[in-house]
Amino acid sequence: TRFYTLTDYPKGLPKRDLFKLTTQTLPELAEGEVRIRNRWLSVDPYMRGRMSGIRTYVEPFEIGKPMEGGAIGEVIASRDARLKEGDIVNHMGGWRDIAQLPAEGVTPLPDIDVPEQAYLGVLGMPGMTAWTGLNVIAECKPGDNVLVSAASGAVGSLAVQLARAKGCHVVGIAGAAHKLAWLESLGVEPVSYRNRDADELGDAIHLASPNGIDVYFENVGGDCLEAALSQLNEGARIAVCGMIDSYNAEQPTPGPRNLVQLVMRKAKMQGFIVTDHWDHYPEFLKEVAPQVAEGKLTYKETVKEGLESTPDAFLALFEGGNIGKMLVKLSP
Ligand code: NDP
After folding, report:
1. I need a labelling partner for 203 at 20 to 30 A (CA). Which of 9, 36, 134, 171 fits?
2. Residue nearest atom 9 in ligand 1 by C-alpha distance
């Protein structure tokens, strides 16, 4: 097997040479284990948190040990009664080509007519995050004015579409022109955050949503949060999904200058971690999967080729190098 390890915990944006590709011979398969040839690897912003060396809601990566992450692959050997050779499965043994792991955390893909890598994106953890943040945390209802940051990303692009499907007016913040164009094609009012300070971004959001904001789906933090706070309606709800703007910060970043808007607008702000809500996953799949299969909900992918591209794919997330879900495709 070939797998990535970290040689040290990074400060700031991780340097490329902190990621080391290692080759090892796998031991014989033990009882209850499976061996999987990975076909798709997921890289996600939350992995930066696992590189900090500190336990957050998930254990840090261990220096010199195989890194982990979502992956889709084919079972090539099994000593577990539930899984057999040829099964296509979802599991956490990513950042490597061949994974060998206990069968418990390995799930066969549901029988739905979608490409298998959709289970790392729109029908997987990011999709479930969008659905949970919007419905469970922000209690989004028809007619709400909704704002989403990092709106053309894996989570954001489903959040905006789910809100549109509810009959909401939706504003999406993104960087590059082609991302804004995609958002517009989805019926979303696109707003660029580039070359704008928090006040200017607030003005742009106001133009795009003159009746204010009832729901803010927060993926970015920083100026986006400050701009969103400036446009809140009374009783607004903010689902804090992520704050990618600060993931590479070397010092704690200052809070928004206008946090008092929460008081003025009697607004609610709540963070969440999707794994705590996984009991809703069947409900999510039942609602969202048919719409994805029928093309009513669309998604995009940015695909890098080959295991060696995994660190670059991960690092590109912090530079807006992806539209939709960032994936690594491994050759068979
Ligand atoms: P994305 O596909 O959205 O990729 C990240 C995107 O964020 C980039 O493409 C870029 O888009 C944007 N971005 C990066 N840096 C900045 C910045 N400094 N300012 C503004 N925008 C920036 O990733 P995901 O959909 O996987 O994740 C989105 C968010 O959701 C992240 O914050 C992540 O941590 C969070 N998350 C939280 C979960 C939870 O359980 N709470 C679970 C999964 C994800 P652009 O070109 O528009 O700048």
Report:
1. 134
2. 320
Q: Which atom of ligand 1 is nearest to the CA of 193?
A: 20
* pLDDT tens digits in sequence order for the chain, 332 residues long: 999 999 999 999 999 999 999 999 999 999 999 999 999 999 999 999 999 988 888 899 999 999 999 999 999 999 999 999 999 999 999 999 999 999 999 999 999 999 999 999 999 999 999 999 999 999 999 999 999 999 999 999 999 999 999 999 999 999 999 999 999 999 999 999 999 999 999 999 999 999 999 999 999 999 999 999 999 999 999 999 999 999 999 999 999 999 999 999 999 999 999 999 999 999 999 999 999 999 999 999 999 999 999 999 999 999 999 999 999 999 87
The answer to whether domain 2-119+300-329 has CATH 3.90.180.10 is: yes
- For the chain, give every domain's residue range: 2-119+300-329, 125-275
- Between the CA of 187 and the centroid of ligand 1 the distance, in Å, is 21
Phi and psi of 297, rounded to 5°?
A: -110, 130
CATH topology of domain 125-275: Rossmann fold (3.40.50)
189: which strand partners?
171
Chain centroid to CA 11: 22
Q: 13 C-alpha to center of ligand 1: Å?
A: 15
Residues in contact with 117: Cβ distance below 8 Å, sequence separation at least 6, in sequence order: 39, 40, 72, 301, 325, 327, 329
Prediction pTM value: 0.98
Q: Find the residues whose C-beta lies inside 6 A of ligand 1.
A: 44-46, 126, 129, 150, 152-156, 174-176, 179, 193, 219-220, 241-242, 244-245, 272-274, 317-318, 320, 322, 326
User: Ligand 1: distance of its center to the CA of 188 in Å?
Assistant: 18
